[in-house]
Design goal:
The structure is a single chain. This protein has helices spanning 53-57, 84-98, 101-110, 133-137, 154-166, and strands at residues 3-12, 17-19, 27-32, 38-40, 47-49, 64-70, 75-80, 121-123, 176-178. The chain has 179 residues and is an alpha/beta fold. The chain has one domain.
Length: 179
């Protein structure tokens, strides 16, 4: 066994909604053994085990999926919770990692953040961890999901009801081997 996967709740718009469509991952590797050659793989999509640091760095080793067990310790993922101005700042910082400064400015001028640029969210009825309560109480913007404005890719709109019914995601990306 190389590590553990944990279930994720993806908050969106505010602290009272979670995104739960087929377009978000339900589980991710977030705990793994030390000193076995684990490195990040494809942005935030997980980790893989590499034979050497050199193979990872020069992209000659594609890595091996980690063998993991599921742990019932939910990760509250607040990446989609921030006021629109903060999303603009995030886009700027992200862009600066990949683009020239002039291109970042050009792209930022096109950004008009739209909370409704999402497929589906549901009302969160649980409790936030106590250490987050101050932030939750300090939310100074309003977000209400308007289902009529939801943006779906045609394939996802057709497949989502079937997946909801059977409790299985077709073609789900899994960067791990569940043991």
């Amino acid at each position: 066994m190389d590590g553990f996967i944990l279930p994720f709740l993806h908050f969106w718009g505010g602290y009272n909604y979670c995104r739960n469509s087929r377009r978000v991952h339900n589980f991710e590797v977030r705990v793994f053994r030390n000193n076995i050659g684990v490195r990040s793989y494809r942005d935030s999509q997980g980790f893989r085990k590499y034979k050497s640091k050199e193979g990872y760095e020069n992209n000659t080793d594609k890595g091996e999926k980690l063998r993991v067990k599921l742990v019932d310790a939910v990760v509250y993922h607040y990446n989609g919770v921030r006021p629109p101005a903060a999303f603009r700042k995030k886009a700027q910082m992200f862009g600066e990692q990949y683009l020239e400064k002039e291109e970042v400015e050009k792209q930022l001028n096109k950004i008009n953040f739209d909370w409704d640029n999402v497929d589906r969210v549901v009302l969160f009825k649980g409790e936030h961890p106590s250490y987050m309560q101050e932030k939750v109480n300090a939310q100074n913007w309003e977000y209400t999901f308007d289902k009529s404005k939801a943006r779906w890719k045609l394939k996802d709109r057709l497949i989502q009801p079937i997946e909801d019914l059977i409790g299985f995601k077709f073609g789900e990306y899994k960067n791990y081997k569940l043991i």
